[in-house]
Specification:
With about 210 residues, the protein is of the alpha/beta class. The protein has 8 helices and 7 strands; from the N terminus they run αααβαβαββαβααββ. It has helices spanning about 1-10, 15, 20-35, 55-60, 75-85, 130-140, 165-170, 185-190; strands at about 40-45, 65-70, 90-95, 115-120, 140-150, 190-195, 200-210. The chain has a 7-stranded mixed sheet with strand order 3-2-1-4-5-7-6. Strand 4, helix 6 and strand 5 form a beta-alpha-beta unit. The longest helix has 15 residues, at about 20-35. The chain is globular.
Length: about 210
């Protein structure tokens, strides 16, 4: 996939060039807060990239929890592994795999248990077959668990004049906002939390997986 090569090329500098601090970190913070994680929870991070979700997740699940991060770029995973080692997180497992094709049964599990939560931040809109990655998230999480999607849209309302900048940011990141993967949270989950940031450029949706 072409977007994998693009992220591989910038993996080492991604945290600096991605506008994480001034713009995109807020979406992660909102989503992880709305996931209502508890100490000991098991969390699946799809499209984990350089591990930018790890610190806020760790703050909530503690050393007794588990995080499994999946990303198709080995270079991005390498950066996430460096972050993990630097912080001494022994409860993080990082996997280089395509989330659109890897079977849920192949993901590392803690004592064979399903995950309590899963999230995909700024990842699904990159994937042509993103619905397969969403299925992986749903199949991996227990009924009653929380799922989060944070992704990109084009600003509206008073923010509409910034659309050209938003389009440029999406293009540079290989994001396709027209895919609107966040809609599956509204359509398929319950107890949905909605938050639109930066006039709708960053869209946060978090919901609860219904039981069978």
């Amino acid at each position: 996939m072409r977007f994998v090569g693009a992220y591989t090329a910038v993996a080492r500098w991604y945290d600096l060039v991605s506008l994480e601090r001034p713009v995109y970190r807020s979406g992660r913070v909102w989503a992880i807060e709305a996931m209502r994680l508890s100490p000991g929870d098991r969390v699946l991070d799809v499209g984990c990239g350089t591990g930018l979700n790890l610190a806020p997740i760790q703050a909530r699940i503690g050393p007794g929890g588990v995080v499994v991060g999946v990303d198709s770029s080995a270079d991005m995973v390498a950066q996430a592994r460096r972050r993990t080692e630097r912080n001494g997180w022994s409860n993080v497992c990082l996997v280089t795999a395509d989330a659109t094709t890897v079977p849920a049964s192949d993901l590392p599990r803690s004592s064979g248990q399903p995950f309590d939560a899963a999230l995909a931040t700024y990842a699904l809109s990159l994937m042509p077959q993103w619905r397969s990655a969403w299925s992986l998230m749903c199949e991996s999480v227990r009924p009653g668990g929380r799922l989060a999607v944070v992704d990109l849209g084009l600003p509206t309302g008073l923010g509409a004049p910034t659309r050209p900048l938003a389009r440029l940011a999406c293009a540079l990141g290989r994001s396709r906002p027209e895919r609107a993967p966040w809609r599956v949270v509204e359509q398929g989950l319950g107890d949905v939390h909605r938050q639109d940031l930066w006039a709708g450029h960053v869209l946060v949706r978090v919901g609860t997986l219904r039981g069978e």
